[in-house]
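Hello,

Our lab assistant flagged a job as stuck in the queue for most of the afternoon. It eventually completed. Since we weren't sure the result was trustworthy after the delay, we are filing this so someone can double-check. Below is the sequence as submitted and the structure that was eventually returned. Let us know if re-running is recommended.
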Amino acid sequence: MRTHLTISQKGLLIFCIIFVAELLFAGSYWSLSQSSDAQIAEEKRVRLIISHLTKISNHIQDASVGLLKTLLEPTEIPDYNSPLQLIPGELNKLIELVQTKDELASIERLSKTTEAGFPLIELARETYRAKDKVHQMVHLGYLLKLIKLSHEATGQVEEISEHFRSIQDASMAKQAADKERAKLLLLLCLTLNVVLIGGLIAFFIRDITARLKVLTDNSIRVAAGLPLNLPLSGRDEITRVDKSFHTMANLLHEAQRREKAVIDNALDVICSINGDGRFVEVSPACLNVWGYPPVELIGRRYVELLERSGKIEDGERQLDLNKDSSKTTFENRIVRKDGTTVDTLWSAQWSEAENSWFCVAHDITDRKKAEQLKRDFVAMVSHDLRTPLASVELSLKLLTGGACGVLPLKAIENVTEAQHNLAFVMILINGLLEFERMNAGKLRLRLAEVNMADVITRSMEAIQPLAERDGVSVVADHPDLEMIGDENRLIQVVVNLLSNALKFAPKGSEIRVATVHSPSSKEVTVKVIDRGQGIPAAEQSRIFQRFERIEEANSADGAGLGLAICKAIVEQHGGKIGVESVEGQGSTFYFTLPTEQATYP
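-- returned structure --
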């Protein structure tokens, strides 16, 4: 049977039922206790009444004995009046103890009987003093009447005593019966308590246990991917937990479905490889990328897919050597099922708990081909394009030098323009070749001790003619700071930054070169500050990329490679380069280098 009560409400209901039962048992026991107390009080009252009746009976007997002595020895007058004088006091105490009208009537009748003897006693005393026979005979008559009254009073006392003895016996019998009922009630209460509490707790536990078993079974079903049991009915806490569990299971199932959809539809191969280098799980993308269905790869060592190039040992150790770091990336070449190769970039993360690598294998074959095309293009530019361009440049110099005679003015202008354009192309080609050499790691720095004051002085001397032409002054600090670096490359960086500043500095303005040395961080920062047009915030993050130029400065000379080359040189020195600019207020280009020798690429 299912109720709509919560667990706390069920617990409160069980408490109330037990509490009511205990109240009933306590009430019954209290009633028996009250009855027993009443019987005890009644028995005490009866004992007192019997005690007083016994005393009255003793007093009457003492008076009777005195009367008999008087009859037997007339010459002596015993004191039989004293016992009778004590009887009224006892009768008054009896009157206080009696409760019913019948009891009071019997006591009053006894009181009248005893009171009737007092006048006879006085008459007997008077006749006894006369000493004549007539009075003695009258005295004897009074004594006989007193004896008769004594017997009558004794009979009444016995009757009253018998009545109260019967009451006492009934009270004692009732007390015994009440004790037995109390024992039975206690036994019944104990039994009913055990049965009631045990039954309620058993029902409560069975209901909760059965519902908790459903929750436990649901957790096992979730782990096994099986459908859950039907939701529990009711409104208690377990029902709410079950409802939340169903909601969580549905969300988890939906998340797993989406995750599976992502993995199944991913272009990259997603897989897990155990500590032995064997595939544990592989996404379906392996069929398109490598030509193997997942079932053919699971359990297979991943090094078996590597190209046989004499480096299988390196490939086999690639993951093992990187277990010390949780994440790693590396490249190798996978042999497809049809024998072709796929250049692959691996991103792997080691899980100590799972003792496995979780990997994403990205096909970089097209990128490798593009890089090869780029290298071929650079080689073509350096060998096949620069030579004819050099010849053209020489021919133009010969023409302007008069080797072919005096040229018309218009022809001279055209040849000069051609020389200018050719020079721009050569700058572009040389910058592109230099940048590619840097990226390929073919440009080696000639490291030596460098004085930053010399670097800044030579840089300023190189651009001084241009500054004078544009009417711009260049000022600088000359710090006497020694560091390790390639002096010519550092001069190239400073000259490039000063040239850019000259392009946009207004006539009559000042360009300042500031050097900041930080002994604590062991770094030196060189800043080139101008008061030009500034750089928009949206463009500051990309001006150090290749062929990037400020939109407002597109009319200025340059191929957009200078800052990219500066960035490569600074980074090869182990430093960093950046810019701070407020549009309309000028720019500050800076680069930071370590002052101590480091490991440079």
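-- support follow-up --
The delay was a queue issue, not a problem with the job. The result is valid. The radius of gyration is 64 Å. The CA atoms of residues 177 and 248 lie 66 Å apart.
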